[in-house]
Structure formats: C-alpha cells, structure tokens
Amino acid sequence: xxxxxxxxxxGTRLRPHTHTVxxxxxxxxGRPVMSYILDDLGELGVDExxxxxxxxxxxxxxxxxxxxxxxxxxxxxxxxxxxxxGAVKLAEPFVDEDVLILFVDTLFDADLALVRGVGxxxxxxxxxxxxxxxxxxxxxxTDDDGYMVRIVEKPSEPISKLANIGLYYIKDWRLLFxxxxxTLDADPGPSxxxxxxxxxxxxxDHGSKIQVAPVEGWYDCGKPATLIETNRHLLLEGRSGVAxxxxxxxxxxxxxxxxxxxxxxxxxVLGPNVTVEAGAQVEDSTVTDxxxxxxxxxxxxxxxxxxxxxxxRVTAYQGALSIGEDSEVEGNR
Length: 333
Description:
alpha/beta, Spore Coat Polysaccharide Biosynthesis Protein SpsA, Chain A, UDP N-Acetylglucosamine Acyltransferase, domain 1, 2 domains, 7-stranded mixed beta sheet, 6 helices
C-alpha cells in the first residue's frame, strides 16, 4: 500500500505564520502537524509516500529526509492550485496498488488498520465524523449497509451529519483515476476548483462500493483558533509535561501544560492549554490557551488564545495575539 499526501497549499488561514513556515510544518504540542500523520502511516507499515508539493517545497522535503529517512518519498509539483482532484492526479504515475489519501489540515483518531480487512467487494473507505454543524462541511449520504451514496457540500437541510474529514483508502485505484480524469474534463466547482469527491461519486456511479467508517476524533489544524484547540487535545492525550532541562520558578502551572527543553518560566501562571517550546522564556506573565514558539520571549504580559512565533518577543501586552517568527510586540494601549 502507498499513500498520497497533498501539501501544495499556502495555508493562508494561518498567516502570518505560514509566511515563513509551510502549513504541514506548523507545530502543535511540540511537533509539526504532518509528523503525527507520518507516524500513523509508519505504524500501518506504509513506507512509500507521494507528496504533492508546491509552496515552500524545499522545507518539506528537507524535513521528511531528516526526520523520516526510511520513507521512500516521491515528490510531484502542483504548479496550478486547481483543487484536490488535480493534486491527486499528479501522483498517478507512482500509483500501482491500493492507496491511502490524507490531507494535513486535520488530525484524527481513526483505525487505519481496518483497511487490511477490506473485502474484495469493497472499492474503498471514506472516514467520517458525525457533527452538529453539518452546514459547514461536505456530508456523506449512505445506504442501509453503510456505503456511500453521494457527498453533498454544505447542505442547508439536515440530510446527513456525517462530515467528510479528508481521509480515504482506495482499493479501486484504477477507477479512481478514471473518475479524476472525468472530473477534470468537466466544469470546475463553484470555487473554480476540481474536487476529489466528484471522482468518488464517479466510482460509486460506476458500481464501486465505498464503505463509510467513523472516526472517534477529528481535530482541525488549519487556522489559529482550531490549532490551539488541537493543542489542548494532544496535551491531554499525553503530550504535556515539563522537561528536565526546563526551569520553572515561582510559577503556577494549570495543566495541561507542556514546557520543553531549556525553556524558562519565572513568576508566571501558565495554562491550561499552553505549550512553551524549547528555549522560550516567560516572565511575570499569565498565559492561557497558547503556543509559544521556540526561543520566543513573553514578559509582563497577559496572553490568551495566542500563537507566538519562534524567536518573537512580547512585552507588556494584554489579550489575544497571533504573530509570526522573529516579530516584536510591545504594549497594546
């Protein structure tokens, strides 16, 4: 089994952070977002991955080579941002067996191992999460046996609450690429892009049975507010703690909190839901619901719902803040 991971987007919802760091390498709970997905693939035994790259591709390729040298990585360049169908189409020359397709906007609690038991009569699996705010998502309609009938984007009526989360296993890979070609030959969607879900519809319309499987958790990493919420989930799931080489003096930690190697926290209140990355410094401050990047400094401030980029300095600031790397903010009154 191989995997396809589209990574070409610019991550505009995470600016200014993605001006200097590609979205897949934005850190949450002390690690790049894409590392959690690559670890899941490794546990499944997938070691050949096609990365569809574009924006800041060199940084992504360096990271994969350094952190995952065992991965047999292929890279294809998506020069035109024409949607998810166009991105996956670029990987076709490298696909000659069943394939997983994963997007790194989200993390998930899903049993990927179930793909090993997919029977001959099933062409693939789409994972879904039941949500209440179904109007925000593409939702999946199923038949009585739990197979996909169709996907409807952002319905106004509650026809389904099964949100498509962007995680797919395709056994009928030849039919998938037939569907992608059919999709690319048609008119684009309302946003001017071609959707991979239209290729899945083609598969179903041509007799393929796509199973819809539930996920226990689905965590968005695509914008600041949801990235901070995902940080909370990961800290609660075992990523919290204070490194031995960190210094915490005269301070209160309201867990979950993560304080990494060489960080210094003095006369401050941290948490809940705070990650202080390696070498960061927090003094005379109160910080809640925040990720403070490596080597950053926060002094005399009260921060909440904040992302502070690596190497940045914040002094005498009160409120929510989102600043990229090597920035400086002093006061807000």
